[in-house]
Design brief:
Layout: H1 11-18, E1 25-28, H2 35-43, E2 49-54, H3 57-66, E3 74-78, H4 84-90, E4 96-102, H5 107-110, H6 137-143, H7 146-157, H8 162-172, H9 178-188, H10 200-211, H11 213-227, E5 228-238, H12 241-254, E6 275-277, H13 287-292, E7 300-306
Helix pairs in contact: 1-2, 7-8, 7-10, 8-9, 11-12
Length: 307
């Protein structure tokens, strides 16, 4: 979700993908600072409506200021996109014309040191999108076994030094701050001339685990498809391969007919395709956008249309 109020990631591409029209209804399931939402409301003027969801109260406060000129045309809720169906029902919206999911942490979260998302600032090991959530990064770092930590770092961070880092963490516990954790990682996993800081993958893995991000995506995608009208568009921005793989496989599966040959009962039920993929290959930021916002470099946008 690496956006700011001034330069949301893939802004022009999102507006082009969703094709907002006057009178339409749209959902930004990961509101952030409200940059994408503002563009959608501008494009569906004068009477288009938008539902904005975010679990982060800081994001909602910022977005409400960003969207102030469109008062009366937007509805905001501190809620996860995993509750999308319930949120639409709350508004009596049977169908919507477009849904955006801009996944991951926002620049606002990375740039608020006390949230603990960034290894460049010293802060408590928190990393929760929703401050009401019960589990922090410190709970995982200090509570998981060495094997559980290693598996987590390897699976969610694709960290090749997972076992070495997990062993070092367990020996150094308790760890309470980002700087303490970074020092442990740097001691056993030097940079080796790579562009990525050695703590990058560990922090990614912890953030994904704290916020249960992959399960959330899996839960939200079917709800998004169910909530779209025929011809409505779903646009999803991901920032790492684990998310992108889930999205790609879901869109491919939903864009295929599932038909049983009469002589070979392979599937339990037949199903017609529900989506059409608009772009088989993900859309990525331009070189100019990456220069202006280096955090956008790993963004991938996939778009599908409801049949």
């Amino acid at each position: 979700m690496n956006d700011t109020p001034h330069q949301p990631v893939l802004y022009k591409e999102i507006i082009h993908a969703l094709q907002p029209r006057r009178g339409g209804r749209y959902v930004d399931g990961t509101l952030g600072a409200g940059g994408h939402a503002r563009g959608i409301l501008e494009a569906c003027a004068p009477d288009g409506q938008l539902l904005g969801l975010d679990v982060d109260p800081q994001a909602l406060e910022t977005a409400r200021k960003t969207l102030a000129p469109y008062e009366g045309r937007f509805h905001l809720a501190q809620a996860s996109y995993t509750t999308l169906s319930a949120q639409l029902q709350r508004l009596d919206w049977d169908e919507v014309d477009g849904i955006l999911l801009d996944l991951g942490a926002s620049s606002m979260q990375f740039d608020t040191p006390e949230r603990g998302f960034s290894f460049q600032h010293d802060a408590p090991l928190d990393m929760r999108f929703d401050p009401r959530a019960p589990r922090t990064a410190a709970d995982i770092v200090n509570g998981y076994s060495e094997r559980e930590l290693a598996d987590l770092l390897y699976e969610y961070g694709e960290e090749r030094d997972a076992r070495k880092i997990a062993r070092a963490i367990v020996r150094a516990r308790p760890l309470h701050t980002t700087r303490q954790l970074v020092a442990v990682i740097e001691a056993v996993s030097p940079r080796r001339g790579e562009r990525l800081h050695p703590a990058t993958r560990t922090f990614q893995a912890l953030r994904i685990a704290v916020n249960d991000e992959l399960s959330a995506v899996k839960a939200a995608l079917p709800q998004a498809v169910a909530g779209l009208r025929s011809g409505g568009r779903l646009a999803v921005i991901s920032f790492h391969s684990l998310e992108d793989r889930i999205i790609k496989e879901f869109l491919r599966e939903q864009s295929r007919d599932l038909i049983n040959p009469p002589y070979e009962r392979i599937y339990k039920e037949e199903r017609q395709a529900t989506l059409k993929e608009i772009n088989r290959k993900p859309i990525t930021p331009s070189e100019e956008e990456i220069r202006n916002n280096p955090r956008a470099r790993s963004a991938k946008l996939r778009i599908a249309e409801k049949l």
